[in-house]
Amino acid sequence: MLATDWTGFGAPAGLLKGGLVLNGLCDLEPVVLAAGNRHLKLTADERRELSPVHRLQTVRCPVIIAWGTAERPEFKRQGMLMGQELRAAGRLAGTYVLEGINHFEIIDAMASEQSLHAGATLAMMR
Question: Which SUPFAM superfamilies match (predicted)?
Answer without folding.
Answer: alpha/beta-Hydrolases
